[in-house]
Design brief:
The protein is mostly helical. The chain contains 8 helices and no strands.
Length: 158
């Protein structure tokens, strides 16, 4: 694989500081090819298939570093209905027969139809895609002091 000085400089820069990280791997693969390594050796070194290395090479020649980026719309599509999640989140769990006042990840997985069978982490990822952050409720502890209730009575209003 023959690279111009500009292409080599560009790939070295991406290999050092490329974001996201998969760009660094692809740039290193192409630099190794340019250094005379075989496609099989590069693929073995980076734990990828030879076909992947060939694809990176052809996409780099066609579009430069921009061709190494993963195209939008690739990958498995989410099965969770984001509007449905929001519909359930805006209501109390008690409206759906649960004896709790706050949603838990497990409760959402049980109640929301499009989240049926999801793990807790899967529900959390779906919430993130819908624009929500999950924060587990913490028990409210006034004080570890056993005499706290007595002391509290001294400064609180009846």
């Amino acid at each position: 694989m023959d690279l111009s000085v500009q292409q080599t400089r560009e790939l070295r820069d991406v290999a050092r500081r490329g974001e996201p990280g998969y760009l660094r791997v692809k740039a290193l693969a192409l630099l190794n090819l340019a250094a005379g390594q075989s496609v099989s050796a590069v693929a073995r070194l980076l734990w990828v298939s030879r076909q992947s290395v060939y694809e990176w090479q052809s996409r780099f020649h066609a579009n430069g570093v921009a061709g190494l980026r993963v195209a939008s719309g690739r990958g498995r599509k989410g099965t969770a209905d984001l509007r449905e999640i929001e519909h359930y989140l805006r209501r109390s769990p008690r409206q759906f027969g649960l004896n709790q006042t706050r949603w838990s990840l497990a409760a959402l997985a049980r109640v929301v139809p499009s989240l049926q069978g999801f793990s807790a982490f899967g529900v959390q990822k779906a919430l993130r895609r819908a624009g929500y952050r999950y924060k587990r409720g913490q028990p409210y502890l006034h004080s570890p002091d056993p005499a706290y209730a007595e002391k509290k009575g001294l400064w609180t209003k009846p």
